[in-house]
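Q: Give me the 3D complex with magnesium ion.
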Amino acid sequence: MGTVITAANQKGGTGKTTTVANLAVYLAAYGKKVLVVDFDPQANATSTLLSPNSLSTHVYHTLVGGILPEDVIRPTGLFSLDVLPATPDLAGATIELVSLKNREFRLYDVINTVKDNYDYVLVDCPPSLGLLTLNSIVAADYVIIPVQSEYYALEGLSQLLGTIDLVNENLGRDVQVLGAVCTMFDRRNRLSRSVLKDIQRNFPGHVFDAVIPRNIALAEAPGYGKTIYQFDPTSAGANAYRYLAKEVIELTK
Ligand code: ADP
Ligand code: MG
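A: Here is the predicted complex, encoded as structure tokens.
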């Protein structure tokens, strides 16, 4: 049975997509079969993991068009890492989903049909608490919360945790917070260190030991359509995501 992990934080730019793409490749490097589900209309996980090609079908069609996910999923060529890609058309799904029955369970149903083929399914979601994110949370066994080590990092996290509680109370799910991961950390910077402490205070026992440094290679790799594993596997960013993958494997055993 595949473990479904969603990276969520309704703030933009906290490292969700970077975390999904690079955690995925290192889980795969550890021999796991991994599917990345791109559920953000910005489709940055897709462009990082798949070489540019015109996608005739994508995750949108599996939600509302009755297309099977197996027919849309593509291999990345990296280990056993596959992608259920997105395109900007996914934005339209938000509007269509509203009128569908079981609208919160659309992604859950799609993932359920394929998750037995994988050890891990990682879901990237948009920076909002809208219906796409709600679907991503409902579909999850676990949520990972990337938190940027910046001012206001913790702002809005109570709404995210509240949303997870509502999903569990009202939609019959049992979604757990696997942990918060501190991203874009600069150890020379006092603010970074104090934000990490705040995160640890807010999520006692639920903060990954892996701390993702602010690392230029992590920022550059997507521009080349590459994960950090391909772009600079000895960088500090690569080491951090490798370590995060190890922790995730340990915590979900
Ligand atoms: P989100 O998906 O939460 O909006 P992204 O993963 O897209 O956030 O990251 C936002 C921006 O910051 C991107 O340009 C990304 O390349 C960059 N970035 C993410 N993590 C790091 C990091 N650890 N070091 C440097 N740049 C990073
Ligand atoms: Mg993103």
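A quick observation: Strands lie at 3-7, 34-38, 74-75, 81-84, 120-124, 142-148, 176-183.
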